[in-house]
Specification:
alpha/beta, 7-stranded mixed β-sheet, two-stranded antiparallel sheet, globular
Amino acid sequence: MTQTQFSVAERTASDYYDSVDADRFYEEVWGGEDIHIGLYDSDAEAIAPASQRTVNALIELIGTLQPGATVVDLGSGYGGAARRLAKEFGARVEAINISAVENARHCQLNERAGLQGQIQVHDASFEDVPLPSGCADVVWSQDAILHSGDRQKVLQEAARLLKPGGVMVLTDPMAADGVEAASLTAILDRIHLPDLGSPDRYQQWAGQAGLVREVWQDQTAMLVRHYSRVREELTRREQELQAKISPEYLQRMAAGLGHWIEGGQQGRLSWGLMRFRKPAAEV
């Protein structure tokens, strides 16, 4: 496991995800595999299968993934997607993540699945990835880049890592296009950042990095549904969860979820699936 120094924004995120309360909450509510926004078939669907559906949808966006292909997962969390890509497609995954707690469990789960030889976990920043240029067939990221203090730099790193013709697939909670940061204060205060990305900003940043956006699937309704489902689970299981997680954390989480739900309902937020491609080298 490699390690790099983190920015203030990244350290804030790592301190949060390394906390006992956060780790236990994500284990209890999501199952400790994926902690990403799901694609739901119904309002009452469980969180885990909806989260897996998002992974499926991003896999479909990649297209053909050859055995032995290299995938760089930016913000890999507990590694649910990395294990899917390694087990089902024979991919080699370079997992970049700033939470030591998540990375430790990620490694344990990889060993339990017999995939430690295919997945390398790096305790590292996705603003400064400790991998050589042109090493990746695919760059993958789910709901992680919002934590960066320099998202444009993350897109530049993705472009650097990709081979010519390679693709980046991602999801990220964003501001809706044209929405000012001042209207998102409650959310931004929670994640300790001055702003969010937006679909247009990602397209612009990617273009400046030399990537072309090929797909933008707006699924903002799923952001609202997902955070609503998480809040419902918190409310339904609150007494049980308080035996493992501090009441103060649960209270803050419920309030934070409410801000995301409200922002989505009011059209101030956006979420969906994107695919970018690094143009193939000219012959």
